[in-house]
Amino acid sequence: MKSKFSQTMQDFSRAVIVPVKFMAVMGLFLAVSVILQLEFMPNVLQTFGGLIKTMMDSMLNNLALIFCVGITASLAKKKKVEAALISLIAFLFFLAANNAWLTLTNQLAEAGDMGLFGTGQAVVLGFQVVDMNVFLGMLVGCIVAFIHNRFSDKEFVDFLSIYGGSRFSFMILIPVILVTAIGMSYIWPVVNGWISSLSGFILTTGLLGVFIYSFGNRFLIPTGLHHLLWMPFCFTALGGTAKIGGQVYNGAANIFYAEMANAGSITSLDPSLRFATFGFVKIFGSIAVSLALIHCAKKQRKEEVKGMILPSMFVAAVAGITEPLDFSFLFASPLLWLVHSLLTAVSETILWGIGARTYMLYGLIDTFVSNSVFSPSVTKFYLVILVGVIMSVIWYFVFVLLINKLNIKTPGREDEESEEAVLVNETNGEFTADGSADFDLVVAGLGGRENIESISNCFTRLRVTVKDEALVDSAQLERISQQKGVVLNGTSVQVIIGMGVQGFKEDICERLGMSES
């Protein structure tokens, strides 16, 4: 039961990150639009800047729908296009039903001087409904995916065949969405109160709250569940609520993007920004850790380690994808990972404590572009550089000290192996040493074709669900040329591949003749 719950949470975490990936692109173009609208820009560029901003605002103001479709498509195990279409319709059904029920029961809130702000309701796609924000998209997306996966294969006799398949799951969804829409009219105000209390606790505990959040956000990465911590704080009311330019925004990242769009009138950034600074470790921490790992490698293997670590460092610092680097030392020493997480928390706490207000969600590119629209007096970016240099030095020496003192087997420090690596050949069960392709290693490591239930991926990980965990051979998986780490959790198997994981997964699925999850 525990393993199944963990797998469910990981699947949800993977699904949630799908729409989040596109937020970075939105932020980039939003920053470009702001720059194009600066006073010294030619009128034609200012006009195009305004058009781009309008486009980006349409995405920012409709995240619930985007999350709904993205989560459904990601969680659907089959007929993904039909599942995505059903989720769009179900989302509209919810809005219509919830609005109708609020109207019928005289629960519609009256707009005040600040509109519906503070009433617990909002206007979504023209419907006044309970204000669930991104949580609405998550809820409907999960409901649709669950019912679609269970009932979309149900077929009927010929004259009723039009009601079979995905149409049958759609039929089931109609009453489910209706009941859900009515129920949320009463349930969500209570949940919203809990969210406000939790958010208030984190926000009012000051530096302690920043420390706890920062530590958990880094420490949970090996489980793949860290998205469940930072994503709600960045994209829902859990991270805070602010009214900017007459529009209400929820979540640290959303609020910052709205401030970017109104940069000319912003003199200070909303305090919710404390939840959107974890890019600091991706930039400064990654560089320091990489240099420490290279320094501690055996002399005869330094060049080999450089070839492995430097590309991972570049991806982490520039693009904000740290997993290839993280898994290069995490399995060698959980203690190093604990220290890494603590240094991350200390760094972000210091930054907030001394007044730095710099948005850092991803890597150098996103950090530079996003903050460039504000004056340095607003972001205090110079404090980030100062703390970054100091903490990088500390990070470096702490890692070097621990690795050498405890003789931790980080890359380039492993004991030399004299025996030749072997591989179980799936076709005849014999051991060979013929340098078989990654595909053969994947199949053998997962216990054979028949043992593979589903295959999917996130940013950098190949995620596989197997039928029998006893058949999994981690030693085989660790011989995959592209792998940077293997995580086993019951029937859930994760192979860390890196940024090329999407193509890697597609190739594996094609060879196996399996549909992609």
TrEMBL record:
<keyword id="KW-0598">Phosphotransferase system</keyword>
<feature type="transmembrane region" description="Helical">
    <location>
        <begin position="272"/>
        <end position="293"/>
    </location>
</feature>
<feature type="transmembrane region" description="Helical">
    <location>
        <begin position="83"/>
        <end position="102"/>
    </location>
</feature>
<dbReference type="GO" id="GO:0090563">
    <property type="term" value="F:protein-phosphocysteine-sugar phosphotransferase activity"/>
</dbReference>
<dbReference type="InterPro" id="IPR001996">
    <property type="entry name" value="PTS_IIB_1"/>
</dbReference>
<keyword id="KW-1003">Cell membrane</keyword>
<feature type="transmembrane region" description="Helical">
    <location>
        <begin position="168"/>
        <end position="188"/>
    </location>
</feature>
<dbReference type="GO" id="GO:0016301">
    <property type="term" value="F:kinase activity"/>
</dbReference>
<keyword id="KW-0812">Transmembrane</keyword>
<dbReference type="Pfam" id="PF02378">
    <property type="entry name" value="PTS_EIIC"/>
</dbReference>
<feature type="domain" description="PTS EIIB type-1">
    <location>
        <begin position="436"/>
        <end position="517"/>
    </location>
</feature>
<feature type="transmembrane region" description="Helical">
    <location>
        <begin position="58"/>
        <end position="76"/>
    </location>
</feature>
<keyword id="KW-0813">Transport</keyword>
<dbReference type="InterPro" id="IPR003352">
    <property type="entry name" value="PTS_EIIC"/>
</dbReference>
<dbReference type="GO" id="GO:0009401">
    <property type="term" value="P:phosphoenolpyruvate-dependent sugar phosphotransferase system"/>
</dbReference>
<dbReference type="InterPro" id="IPR018113">
    <property type="entry name" value="PTrfase_EIIB_Cys"/>
</dbReference>
<keyword id="KW-0472">Membrane</keyword>
<feature type="transmembrane region" description="Helical">
    <location>
        <begin position="12"/>
        <end position="38"/>
    </location>
</feature>
<feature type="transmembrane region" description="Helical">
    <location>
        <begin position="381"/>
        <end position="403"/>
    </location>
</feature>
<dbReference type="GO" id="GO:0008982">
    <property type="term" value="F:protein-N(PI)-phosphohistidine-sugar phosphotransferase activity"/>
</dbReference>
<keyword id="KW-0762">Sugar transport</keyword>
<dbReference type="Pfam" id="PF00367">
    <property type="entry name" value="PTS_EIIB"/>
</dbReference>
<feature type="transmembrane region" description="Helical">
    <location>
        <begin position="305"/>
        <end position="321"/>
    </location>
</feature>
<keyword id="KW-0808">Transferase</keyword>
<feature type="transmembrane region" description="Helical">
    <location>
        <begin position="228"/>
        <end position="252"/>
    </location>
</feature>
<dbReference type="InterPro" id="IPR050429">
    <property type="entry name" value="PTS_Glucose_EIICBA"/>
</dbReference>
<feature type="transmembrane region" description="Helical">
    <location>
        <begin position="122"/>
        <end position="147"/>
    </location>
</feature>
<dbReference type="GO" id="GO:0005886">
    <property type="term" value="C:plasma membrane"/>
</dbReference>
<dbReference type="InterPro" id="IPR036878">
    <property type="entry name" value="Glu_permease_IIB"/>
</dbReference>
<keyword id="KW-1133">Transmembrane helix</keyword>
<feature type="domain" description="PTS EIIC type-1">
    <location>
        <begin position="3"/>
        <end position="415"/>
    </location>
</feature>
<keyword id="KW-0418">Kinase</keyword>
<feature type="transmembrane region" description="Helical">
    <location>
        <begin position="194"/>
        <end position="216"/>
    </location>
</feature>
<protein>
    <submittedName>
        <fullName>PTS transporter subunit EIIC</fullName>
    </submittedName>
</protein>
<feature type="active site" description="Phosphocysteine intermediate; for EIIB activity">
    <location>
        <position position="458"/>
    </location>
</feature>
<dbReference type="InterPro" id="IPR013013">
    <property type="entry name" value="PTS_EIIC_1"/>
</dbReference>
